[in-house]
Amino acid sequence: MTSTPELRTERLTIREWDTSDAAAALPVYGAEEVARWLTPEMRAVHDVAAMRSVLQAWIEAQPNLVPPAGRWAIERNEDGRLVGGLSLRLLPPYEEDFELGWQLRPDAWGNGYATEASRALVRWAFDQGVEELFAVARPKNERATATARRLGMEWVGETEKYYGHRLQVFRIRPSDLKRGTAG
Ligand SMILES: CC(C)(COP(=O)(O)OP(=O)(O)OC[C@H]1O[C@@H](n2cnc3c(N)ncnc32)[C@H](O)[C@@H]1OP(=O)(O)O)[C@@H](O)C(=O)NCCC(=O)NCCS
């Protein structure tokens, strides 16, 4: 069972999702600028009811995931606003590699929140004994690739092995965390 952290950074708290987050999560997952880069099922989040169903499914799945996999909300400390989400999941089809994923509501982009929150989650994952984490991004997803690099992730190549389309692959190991830039 995943022991879910509540991680606090200078500006952010990474915590478990609750179904009462549905209205606040919709500007993240219902935004076309976000959903276009995510898996097809996330493109169907059009309203609060659909968002609540998605959150319910995540919450129910969480205890049965292979640690440290999970999904978490990112809340801003200064006003308690939900600014986005983070995920750690086993990449299909082989389920050997853990993927770190980030999603922020578009009006929260440009503040370093994805980098700051990811750094805390990555540290926590390494403390659980994971030796490396991956991020995958479509070649045109420049914001995602910039976040990966900012975090100190190393570009390892392109592959179609995970989701069947061409993706840039980044990897981070414990020693890489030190190389990341501020945030
Ligand atoms: C990917 C995504 C999370 C990146 O958001 P972001 O805000 O650009 O990410 P970061 O946290 O790395 O922030 C970096 C930006 O904040 C700025 N910034 C401001 N303060 C900062 C700080 N303290 N630390 C770091 N960066 C800071 C940086 O200069 C940079 O701005 P720029 O993009 O204008 O150059 C966001 O675009 C998103 O949700 N995209 C859709 C979903 C998605 O593609 N997810 C990944 C799927 S593979």
Strands side by side in the biggest sheet = 1-2-3-4-5
For the record, what CATH class applies? Alpha Beta
Question: Which cofactor or ligand species appear?
Answer: coenzyme A
Order of helices and strands: EEHHHEEEHEHEE
Please summarize the sheet with the most strands: 5 strands, antiparallel
Radius of gyration: 15 Å
> What's the overall average pLDDT, rounded?
92
What is the count of β-strands?
8
Count of discrete alpha- or pi-helical segments spanning 4 or more residues: 5
Count of spatially separate domains: 1
Which class of secondary structure composition applies to the elements?
Answer: alpha+beta
Strand content: 25-35%
The shape is globular
Q: What is the CATH topology classification name?
A: Aminopeptidase
CATH architecture name: 3-Layer(aba) Sandwich
* The CATH homology group name: Gcn5-related N-acetyltransferase (GNAT)
